[in-house]
Each structure stands twice: as structure tokens, then as C-alpha cells.
Specification:
This protein has helices at about 15-25, 55-79; strands at about 30-35, 45. By secondary structure, the protein is mainly α. The longest helix has 24 residues, at about 55-79. It starts with 15 loop residues before the first helix and ends with a helix.
Length: about 80
Amino acid sequence: MADQQTKTKLPEQFQPTEKIRTHGLKNRLMIYSRKTAGGKNGDWFMASPPLTITQGECDELTDRLEATSSDKQDELSRT
């Protein structure tokens, strides 16, 4: 969202789900991203680790998600 209080969405040309997915790939994460109801209900992404994931792997996944989020925030601050 461009503004969480007013629920203003990011401009369509910004492609938030695609950019999160791309940043995830840079951090060695495969992220499934899409718009809900064609964007009417917002954008979302999902990381789905195997059910056999260990605690160490969960920590690594969290670190990679945090790096992806940080990369996206850095990109937003430059625009």
C-alpha cells in the first residue's frame, strides 16, 4: 500500500507483487505472488516451505524474507 491509513494502493505500473517476487529470487526464495480479484482486494505473496522444514531452515527462510522486504523498502525509498 502507498498509505496504510487511507488504504491507498500503489500505482498499477509499480507492479508490487512482481517486484517482491523478483527481490525474493535475488535472495534465493521462490515466492508465489498475485493480485486478489484482479487487484480489487490487494496484492499478496506466499512462500511455502516443505512440511519437513527444520528450525534452522525456518530461521533461514525468515532471514531471506526479511532481506527481501528490506530490498523492497530500499527500492520504494528511491522512487
